[in-house]
Amino acid sequence: MLPKKAKHYFKSLGLKSKNDTIDAKGLAQMAAEQNLDVWEPISPQIEELKALTRHYSNLQEQKTVYNNQIYAIESSHHHDKLVLKDLYELVELMETKLVAIKKQIDVVIEKDSILKEKFALISPIQGVGTLTIATIVAETNGFEFFDNQRQVTSYAGYDVTERQSGKFIGKRAISKQGNSRIRKILHLPAFNVVRFQQQPFTNLFERVYERTNMKMKGYVAVQRKILLLIFSLWKKNEKYNPNKVASMNEATLDEVQELLLQE
After folding, report:
1. How many angstroms separate the CA atoms of 230 and 122, rounded?
2. Cys staple from 190: which of 85, 139, 154, 223, with CB 3.0 to 4.6 Å?
């Protein structure tokens, strides 16, 4: 059960205080009233992928910090050579560690026959690398507890929210109330699939950009599309076929938003 759902359930009961006793009683009542899925521990392979992908992300952020410091120092009027030397060494160390982590991710996938087979279904998508797939699989536990695309969209924070009251009509936007690591790892692949003219991503981007005149909205729509495509291929055990995907009828952005808001 997602923590956010439990939190909203407690609010619906009118609980204003929070302690271990209240939480235990509330969770027990929710379990008694609702038909919840039985909890299962994450597999060791997925758990290792999660540790590796998160460690990679943390090191990548640290490398960016060091590179920014190098740029700031080199752009200043005076800079200390020793400091620059240390920063360059740290960046080199980060790069070595990042390469090693990627190799270990490949080892984990190669050793598990199921993961190897699943990754082979998705890897033909040009612009979506092993690290992206590994991060999404690790953060969703191999889509173990997801039955439909709506659940995946909501979990990643790509669901559309609306603010409207009387004559006031606010802007629609994605909620971002979900797993931020998934949205982060899909940022660059969204640029890649559009740059490589991969369908239906390019058509989706152009259609959204034409309607909104905002490239970032187009790329966000592409991110969501990549995530749902990976989910579909993973669940159906179906290999990516660009010709088949390109021939699928694409819903317009407005239709997608209306569907999400209705659900």
Report:
1. 6
2. 223
**Chain mean position to CA 234:** 15
Q: What is the DSSP letter of 36?
A: P
Whole-number Å distance between alpha carbons of 68 and 62: 10
The confidence score (pLDDT) of residue 170 equals 61
pLDDT tens-digit profile of 170-200?
Answer: 667 777 778 899 999 999 999 999 998 887 8
Assess contact for 183 and 192: CB atoms under 8 A.
no
| DSSP secondary structure code for residue 43 in this structure | P
The answer to whether residues 50 and 61 touch, using CB atoms and an 8 Å cutoff, is no
Q: Say if residue 200 is preceded by a cis peptide, omega within 30 of 0.
A: yes
Domains of the chain, first to last: 44-111 (1.20.120), 149-172+179-262 (no CATH)
* Mean pLDDT of all residues in 223-229: 92
The C-alpha atoms of residue 228 and residue 135 are separated, in whole angstroms, by 14
Residue-wise pLDDT for 147-161, tens only, equals 888 889 888 888 877
Contact 142, 209 (CB under 8 A): no
Angle at which helix 81-111 crosses helix 130-139, to 10 degrees, equals: 70
Neighbouring-strand partners of residue 198: none
Kindly give, in sequence order, each residue whose CB lies less than 8 Å from that of residue 17, ignoring residues fewer than 6 positions away. none
d(CA 140, CA 144): 7
pLDDT band at 245 (very low <50, low <70, confident <90, very high): low
